Amino acid sequence: MHWSRKQIAVRAGVAAALAVAAGAVFALGRESSPFPSQPDDSPTVRIGNPIPVASFALRDAYLNNNNRFVVLAYEGLTLNDRSGRELPALAERWEALDGAHRWRFHLRSGVVFHDGTPFSAADVRRSWETALRVGPGHYSYPYMLEPIRGARAFAAGEARSIEGVRIVDDSTIDVLLDRPLVFLPALLSLPQAAIAGARSTDRRPIGTGPWRWVSGQPRTGDEIWLARFRRYWGAQPKLDSVVIRTVPDSLQLAAFQAGWIDFTNLVVPGARAALRRSERMGYLDGVTTGLFRLTIDFRQPHLADPRVREALCLAVNVEKLSVIFGGAIGRQARGPVPPQMGGSRGPAACAFDPARARTLLQEAGWPAGRPLRFWAPAGEQGEFPPELGRLIANSLSSVGFDVEYHQDPGAWDAMAAKQADVVLESWYPDYADPDAFLFPLFHSSNAGSASNPGWFRDAVTDSLIDASRAALDSTERVRLQREAEARIVSLRPNVFLWFSHMPTAYAVRLKGWQPTTYTFRYQELELAARKR
Asked: Which CATH fold topology does 12-72+209-286+502-527 show?
């Protein structure tokens, strides 16, 4: 799962200066790099994280940069492959019963945690109860467990256990739902639904994944080392270890050039030609399903007027922004669902029209003395170019909004505290289904969570999403999802910007790299010179 929340960052001005320095290092070559040289024959994959891993706890697995660690050490009943299709993991098979009101999971035998403790059905119930104890409404509330009967009552402290989680025996568990859900196995692949060992702690994580934690602590910026778990139930990693290193986005290209990290997704347009020519580096390209959006706070009375939200949408020239950033920001969004998942392929959700935006604001009587409080993430937050927020703020100002602009790592906290009207953010789904955008981002049950921080609520949208989740007929399910998307677009809870572009440069000292949208756990990587 890949989405950014409450991340630690540096200010945009510092980021811009570092970006210039990083470009200069790349141009000069490896010898002038500030990063220590690394041996090409090291059986370790080196991962660069733009900020320190914030937590080892599964309750914080919704944080984008924590997933660099979480997906390696932990796993759930199911697992996403590179395309988002769910595969067996701790459950070797499953079946839907009673019209998808009940699911039976047959657990894999012989699985042990990193501390040698055997895995059983009791661990599933314990881990899910731990995840739900954060309570409804909290940013880290595990929405993927919400459909389980009694999950919300347990999370609210109204029940001592989750009614719908029933252990049949040590290797079989039944999951009962409040209503039919045809893709529950896909939801259970999400990191917050993973299973931790009984003795796992925030400082000593214990999972069942192919890599086990060895050293390093969260929040410190220290290197985090993981070793191959030799008792892993599945395919053994071909390398010995993984190291996660904190490397700011603006220095990732320089770190990659020096061999300090083995891949980077932050490839500026000017460096692409050089990367393609290099014998030491490979290059993968592609558009991901990550959605960039401006989220509008529906609790703010002055944003209740649909003309104001329409003006916000009409004010941003997405095509021009794409040109400014060399096409690196991706494909313009027509709605919240990517076209490769069956989303809208029609005209833009609202085409750039500043004159119409000014007219709408005047008709709505936008109060001149009331600033529009626009927050953007600080410059070191992953995929957000540091200049992007300022350019959007300028666009909003040009149509008549009195913009109060903040570029700060606390953007999402500001919206939670009703201090922000509009926030620039991204959303990366964890399973290949339109529901991965429709339900978490726009269903009322998630209002106020990390996925729906703008508190969007609409009964018609809810009914369409709920019906699509229960539809056993695939044609009817697609129809309901498209109708839900059209309804959402018409209500303008977000300004839909683009689906992100993800160029990846990788070190050819390792082989086995493949383009991926979802989970990649580096098990297939091996030294290029090593024989099978």
From this structure: D-Maltodextrin-Binding Protein; domain 2 (3.40.190)
Separation between Cα atoms, residue 302 and residue 304, nearest integer Å:
6
pLDDT tens, position by position, 489-519: 999 999 999 888 777 889 999 999 987 766 7
Instruction: For 505, list phi and psi in degrees, rounded to 5.
Output: -100, 135
Within 141-279, strands assigned E span 165-169, 172-176, 211-215, 224-228, 241-246, 263-264
Matching CATH number, 75-193, of 3.40.720.10, 3.40.1170.60, 3.40.50.2300, 3.90.76.10: 3.90.76.10
* Amino acid type, 364: A
Confidence of residue 163 (pLDDT cuts 50, 70, 90): very high
Statement: the pTM of the whole predicted model exceeds 0.85: no
Distances (CA, A) of 352 to 321, 489, 500: 12, 15, 19
Distance CA 4, CA 522 (A): 22
Contact residues for 271 (Cβ-Cβ < 8 A; gap 6+)? 23, 26, 253, 505
